[in-house]
Design brief:
five-stranded antiparallel beta sheet; 851 residues; 1 helix; mainly beta; single chain; 76 strands
Length: 851
């Protein structure tokens, strides 16, 4: 095994933690616990990352990962110094204590000169102990020692020589992380960089009470077979058995057997050999220095584990029945290529596991495997950018790794692989792995400790909003952006999450807008927006050469009975018409979707989930009624594709029916405007009658029976606004406007006088992007006196408006304008109703402003 040690420029990171040996915030061992999963499940997401404090230069280079107990962080160096830092101190970058454990060894090595504390220590919070292992010269005699320190003071409690007969420090190295289990500290040994001399792999178990040393040496029939992975050893929590992965030997195998080379060994707590797994092509890989043991074993749970190495093939193994040569559960011996993880490249150090993802650091990028325990098997979920990735950890819904070539520390979305964060460059040593606790990432720099603070997603959000579906997978879905506007006076911190699809955080200053998307291949729902203050989210989708925007819903919009005005899978071009149901509550919701003349659709939507339903091809009519018969209320939306266009509209309950409702504009005159129908739905128990009138233009009467729906239009050539729908007898109605523009379709719900506001927002304005031909802000004044004010965009752009009582006017910014948010502010007169009407290529969309 050629370890290939180097010190290279690398970037930073930031992350979160998970409970283990001691307190919930602790990270007391390599990758947080003895499964070596490196996963803090207590941190569901992060909103942002900021650089924290950095220590001064430490004495000696740092190869070990930091360990954390409570507020104290411990760092060991090649200079045989162990440092403690107190994160709760007013000066956390100043060491709490610094203990020198003994004189470093500078000469006498057969090869590869690492000599101090190379491996990651382990802490025992309950016993107030920290254990470190490294080379120490005592009275000019060099040896490996296990040093026991007092966690609180750094005082040396004991030093135990690690020198059983046959373990020769001249040729043996110790870089694998220490493991605390079963009343022992386990210390693995491998060779030195260069594979010189005669040596074997060793595991020593030091009794924490008596300091007595128990040992295991690999098969002496061959030379080598080391335990050298930086992740060290894993422990099967169901048995306490020790799992170690061995590297290559020197291509001489008496009897043609592997003699424990290229293997995973299962040892008892007292280090008796119990079982072995050896990779099928062990001979070829050993002779080519393709160590299986370059990576530590990983415990997956359910009796399974995972191992990969420099040979690129990953294996699912049965921990309690390792099976000898070729005894893996996956991949099959007849097709090992199914297990190729790194595309033939090399893997080093340790993996991480956050079900269902196994994260593997390859020298050509981080790889996420999706693990299926039922088969068992895995497949590649995503690959990160091409750089040499260090052993990852998982927290805040992200995977954190360093680039050894200097481009920074990365956070990748766990589900999608999208880059969530990238720092500036720092210098780190080879195979460096960060640690995490209490929303802080601890990075072992070349000779210093660096920290990064994670701003967590809100635990008790002041605002929670929903979108039913997200799609950047389906053919034609080119963009699906979640826009978030902060209309408040304080900073809004939040996260946008897609069920089983990842998370994106945001930190928005007052009046700021941000837009976010999930990685390639993301599809599903619901999308949840949570924030520390009220925000205004909307979803802007481009589908082929069409555009649609829909506002977020909240749990308050959920209803036991809600309505859509019309359903159409019969008209030419109407390809899909899906009713999406989102259940924001804590129990399952059941019910029916009904449409006159069609068979009912039963639905059942579990808590926090989303499902969609459709009627058969050829179905047309209205209204569509969504009725919950048991369980909590649901949020419903209708997603329609018409030719190459997409539109989504929210369902409305009977409580939204109004005696007077408005539409800003009507158009059957402009080129491409083929249909402009006003649909009226009567959810009441008696007939509703009234008028539909265009200001300064024509009007017509309407009459809609109880529970019925009718639609109306004005003659070709009609244009203007506003449209006012007035009920003169009977109950209020739900009004919507369905427009077809060229071969695109859009539906907008009627607005009410109660929707008027003195300050209103749109997420975005665009008269710059290709295809964006019109972007008009329509202002409707439902009041009795004139209204005046301004329409503003960031950067000092503004337009004044003045709209008389009962009138409508529209405004736009110059060609080339882009940005957000758009703010409509009334400076004199009554509040107004605003909508944004956009034409994108030959599609049309209208969205109402939000207060």
């Amino acid at each position: 095994m050629r370890i290939r040690i180097a010190t290279l420029a690398v970037g930073l990171l930031a992350i979160a933690a998970f409970p283990v040996l001691a307190q919930a915030a602790d990270w007391p061992t390599y990758h947080q616990d003895n499964t070596r999963a490196g996963y803090d499940a207590s941190q569901p997401g992060f909103a942002g990352v900021t650089a924290g404090w950095t220590s001064g230069a430490l004495t000696g280079t740092v190869y070990a990962s930091p360990v954390v107990v409570g507020t104290h962080v411990f760092v060991a160096t090649e200079g045989n110094h162990v440092y403690a830092f107190d994160t709760a101190s007013a000066t956390p970058s100043t060491p709490l204590w610094n203990t020198f454990v003994g004189t470093t060894v500078s000469a006498g090595f057969g090869c590869g000169g690492l000599s101090g504390i190379t491996s990651t220590p382990v802490a025992d919070a309950a016993a107030n102990r920290l254990y470190v292992a490294g080379m120490v010269s005592v009275s000019s005699a060099a040896n490996f020692y296990l040093t026991t320190l007092n966690l609180a003071t750094g005082a040396i409690v004991a030093q135990t020589k690690l020198a059983p007969a046959g373990l020769n420090w001249v040729y043996n190295g110790q870089r694998g992380a220490l493991t605390l289990a079963n009343g022992y500290v386990y210390v693995p040994f491998g060779g030195r960089n260069g594979d010189c001399g005669t040596y074997h792999g060793w595991i020593l178990g030091i009794n924490t009470s008596t300091q007595a040393v128990t040992s295991f040496e690999t098969d002496t029939a061959v030379n080598g077979t080391p335990f050298w992975a930086t992740g060290g050893l894993a422990v099967d929590p169901s048995t306490g058995d020790i799992l170690g992965a061995t590297g290559n030997s020197f291509c001489t195998f008496p009897g043609g057997t592997p003699h424990q080379t290229q293997s995973v060994l299962r040892l008892s707590p007292t280090l008796s050999l119990l079982d072995t797994f050896t990779e099928p092509d062990w001979h070829n890989n050993s002779c080519n220095d393709s160590d299986l043991g370059s990576v530590a074993p990983l415990v997956l749970g359910g009796g399974y584990g995972f191992i990969v190495g420099k040979q690129s093939i990953g294996y699912i193994i049965r921990l309690n029945s390792l099976g000898g040569v070729g005894g893996q559960a996956f991949p099959p011996n007849a097709n090992l290529a199914l297990g190729d993880v790194c595309n033939g490249a090399l893997a080093f150090g340790a993996t991480a596991y956050a079900a269902p993802y196994i994260l593997v650091p390859c020298d050509n990028g981080l790889v996420a495997l999706k693990y299926d325990p039922t088969v068992p098997s895995f497949s590649v979920a995503w690959r990160g950018p091409n750089f040499w990735a260090t052993p990852p950890i998982v927290a805040g819904g992200a995977v954190w790794t360093l680039d050894t070539s200097g481009s920074g520390l990365y956070a990748f979305d766990l589900a999608t692989g999208a880059v969530r964060y990238q720092s500036g460059a720092i210098s780190v040593n080879h195979f460096a792995s960060p640690s995490e606790s209490a929303n802080t990432i601890f990075v072992p720099g070349s000779n210093q400790l660096l920290t990064f603070s994670m701003t967590p997603c809100p635990v008790a959000p002041a605002y929670t909003g929903y979108f039913n579906w997200y799609d950047n997978v389906s053919s034609g879905m080119y963009q699906d952006n979640i826009h978030v506007v902060n209309p408040g006076a304080t900073t809004a911190v939040g996260c946008v999450t897609l069920a089983n699809g990842g998370a994106v955080g945001f930190v928005l200053a007052p009046g700021q807008e941000g837009h976010y998307h999930f990685g390639p291949g993301s599809i599903g729902g619901p999308v949840t927006v949570e924030a520390s203050a009220r925000v205004i989210p909307s979803q802007r989708v481009t589908y082929y050469q069409t555009f649609n925007e829909v506002a977020a819903s909240t749990a308050a919009d959920a209803a036991m009975t809600s309505y859509f005005n019309w359903y159409d899978k019969a008209s030419s071009g109407m390809y899909q018409d899906n009713i999406h149901l989102l259940n924001p509550s804590a129990s399952t919701s059941n019910g029916v979707i009904t449409l006159p003349g069609a068979a009912n659709l039963a639905f059942s939507v579990p808590a926090g989930q989303e499902k969609y339903y459709s009627f058969p091809q050829g179905t047309i009519g209205g209204p569509v009624t969504v009725s919950v018969t048991s369980g909590p209320a649901v949020i419903a939306s209708q997603r329609v594709t018409y030719y190459g266009s997409f539109n989504e509209v929210r369902a409305r309950p009977a409580s939204s029916a109004a005696m007077t409702s408005y539409f800003n504009w009507y158009d059957r005159q402009s080129t491409g405007m083929y249909q402009d129908n006003v649909h009226l739905l009567n959810p009441g128990a008696t007939t509703a009658s009234g008028t539909i009138a265009i200001s300064g233009g024509p009007s017509q009467g309407f009459s809609v029976g109880a529970g019925q729906e009718n639609h109306y239009s004005f003659p070709q050539g009609t244009i203007g606004g506003p449209i006012t729908v007035t009920v003169t007898s009977g109950p209020g109605v739900l009004a919507s406007q369905r427009v077809s523009y060229y071969q695109s379709f859009n539906e907008a719900g009627g607005t009410l006088a109660s929707d008027a506001g003195a300050t209103l927002y749109f997420a975005w304005y665009d008269k710059q992007s290709t295809g964006m031909y019109q972007d008009n802000v329509h202002i409707l004044n439902p009041g009795a006196t004139a209204a005046a004010g301004t329409i503003t965009l960031p950067g000092g752009l503004n337009r004044a408006f003045a709209v008389n009582a009962g009138q409508e006017a529209y405004y736009s910014f110059a060609q080339g304008t882009i940005g957000g948010p758009v703010t409509v502010t009334v400076t004199a007169g009554p509040p107004v109703i605003a909508s944004q009407r956009v034409t994108f290529y030959q599609s049309f969309n209208e969205v109402a402003a939000s207060p």
